[in-house]
Amino acid sequence: MARAVWTGSLSFGLVNVPVALFTATDEKSIHFNQFQSGTSERVRNKRVNERTGEEVAYQDIVKGYDLGGGEYVLLSPDEIASVAPGRSKTIDVSAFVDLAEIDPVYFDRTYYLAPPAKGGGKGAERAYALLREAMLQANKVALATFVLREKQYLVAIRPRSDALVVETLLYADEVRNPAEEIDTLPVEADWSPQELEMATMLIDSMSTEWEPEQFHDTYRERLEDLIEQKRSGAVVALEPQAPEGAPVVDLLQALEASLRATRGGSDGADAGGADRAKKSAKKSSAAPTRAKKAPGSTKKAPPAKGTAAASRRKAS
Fold first, then answer.
1. Which of 4, 128, 217, 230 lies 20 to 30 A from 163 at CA?
2. pTM of the full predicted structure?
3. Contact at 8 Å (CB) between 117 and 37?
């Protein structure tokens, strides 16, 4: 069974609901130790003084904040601890909002909230279930703050049919504004009504239900297979790297080819779809459509709220 990483209470108004926090995800990346090539001898990392090359004991290490130009502000563990927020026993709800108002770029890590195994009782379970159901009925998520492992978090608590889910959020100053950080944004481009029609048809032909079990980490699976081959003593044949895709020269031609591929080849249905798109384009204005620069795009602000992407995280 999963072990709680934090226990306390969820507080909103004058109501306190005893809860426990559990990690919701299980990271599956394969990790390696380091060895000297040609040997079975481990390579270890050490903390060393960069001037003398001598190893430094952990208790003799302090932290330094880089001011630039080789200047640092040095802080001892006690000095850092003096401003730490301290362990929190409550998750304090400050407001309820629509999930669609939160751009998924702010989501950081996911946890589950559940009644505690000890010290809760039927009263805690009833209050938990009532809060979850009320949030489902209202279609709202709670915004709250709490401290975990000496770090203060802003979180969004969203209801599912089986549990309350805690999403730790990035603060506004931790999210970059793409228009300010990337010099190729915002994009201004021209396209024809026919190209837009074909692109829409391609999206429609590839649309499906979200089934996470259909997706696999193929790199991890191939890496596990490679490890098993090496373990069993098999001779490993190195596969050549796949060539990079060629740049798009004719966008409309590429869209039509993609549409044919998703529909299983150049059958009558494909040709009909392409013909319909072409006829629709002829009826439309011959003037190309221009993607306009969003007003106020140079103003420093958080990224725009996304409703379509956010729907993948809505309560089940």
1. 217
2. 0.71
3. no
